[in-house]
Pseudouridine synthase (Anaerosporomusa subterranea), 299 residues
Amino acid sequence: MKSFSSYMIAMEHQDKTVENYLKQILQCSGRKIQRLTRQKGLLLNGKPTFLQKKLKLGDKLQVLISEDAGFGVKPEQGVVEILYEDEYLLVINKPARQLVHPTGQTTSGTLANFLAFELQQRSILSAIRAVHRIDRDTSGCVMFAKDSHSQFILAQQLSARTIKRTYWALVKGVVSPPSGTINAPIGSHPNQPNRRAINEQGEPAVTHYRTLRTFPDASLLELTLETGRTHQVRVHLAHLGYPIIGDGMYGVRVSWMLRQALHAEAISFNHIKKEEELTIHAPLPADFAKAIDYCANHQ
């Protein structure tokens, strides 16, 4: 009997095609999508679907789980730092330079691979369901649902903006005004397919920021997201004129911070059963703390 992972379509993902959702949100490779199509491994609201079908809010997309022990990814031993866990979900502290989930040619060494091994060691058989994702070089909080019903509830919270994600970013320049809101739509880059850009035809994107510390030529910002577009914080801060230090794609390369100085510092959500709000914090990584010290003492 075939086994499927289920994904409930949130507001921010409606109007995407099935193919775009698979590529952009689930980060499936073209090869995997072809395999799913051959195996009739895609169902929409319980019925076979096609790749160019547009998704609607509340749709249920089911994706065939491969033979990798029922987890959807191959279990692989590695370090998993669990910040919070209950019977419905986990919040994990992802280190920088690690993918959340296999994508493209990278099929191992991801957070999902390591989490699958962790659950396997506990004799828990569950598809690995990331509720949201952060970039490879961003550190911090990532939430995983333990079952499809919990994933559905958390997807509803994400759509209703009940889930709040807070980031810290170290940026070039003294930000003025020290707090504010960036409201600029984000879409495809006109020339580089792996990048995003401010695009009037893009999807709405809103980021709130406030300054935590200032240095002679840098600022430490706290940011909260209303939307979750790909590369949203990085694109918005570059657009504002204060690019993220260490960000080789949108920001400023430096010798003393070898990845983007962006950290998913906290995530807030409503407990699935108790209806109380929980806030989980991820400790600041050593490289980020050293970068802050550098700005304080060398600029």
The helical segments are 18-25, 30-38, 111-121, 148-159, 232-240, 286-298. The mean pLDDT is 91. DSSP finds six helices and 16 strands in the chain.
